[in-house]
Amino acid sequence: MRVVIGEDSALFREGLARLLEDAGHDVVAKADDAPSLVAAVKAEEPDLAVIDIRMPPDRTDDGARAARELRLLMPELGIVLLSQHVESRHSVELVAGGYFGYLLKDRVFDVDDFLDALRRVATGGSALDPEVVGTLMGQARAVDPLDQLTPREREVLALMAEGRTNAGIAARLWLTDRTVETHVTSILSKLGLHESADEHRRVLAVLTWLGLRPGLEKSDGRDPRQAS
To answer: What is the three-state SS of 95-109?
Structure first.
């Protein structure tokens, strides 16, 4: 996997590069500001860009804005935002297209899980920190299609939103793979996702959870898990 890193902290940038190289990946460029990042990705056309949100020149959301620009140029570029904060202005649009991850630096506890998340994003999947999912759920609808899900189905769907496979969900919830498959089938049915391919239906289910499916009304930020 060919990777470009956008990170203004030299220690974090070099440490991440070493981690990726030790795992067998090729770090083709490193950038310490948003304009250099965009230029490097355009030049190298990597499989994945790992981007800090707060980068020079403004040190606000420059990395997120660069990610949005790169998404328009390269729809199938894997993009992983790394931050200490949750930024929803640009990430809401990015998450809807796949090939996207959003991880919080202080909550990356396992190297293997982190590397697996990067591989998943580079191949078109998603990887969202649960805290990010919780924030993005503030985009929920006034008429909530999630009301019909059971508490366990909501747990399963939340883990789907983090980008976990059925096996990963089973391990997290201490369920059998078959039980998780049953829950997923029920979730897709209740959300009216019957006719598309399985992977596409999973994406639509996640977008429903995040309140991003086209045609769904947005509300005042009510958390769908609070529904009666």
So the answer is: HCCCCEEEEEHHHCC
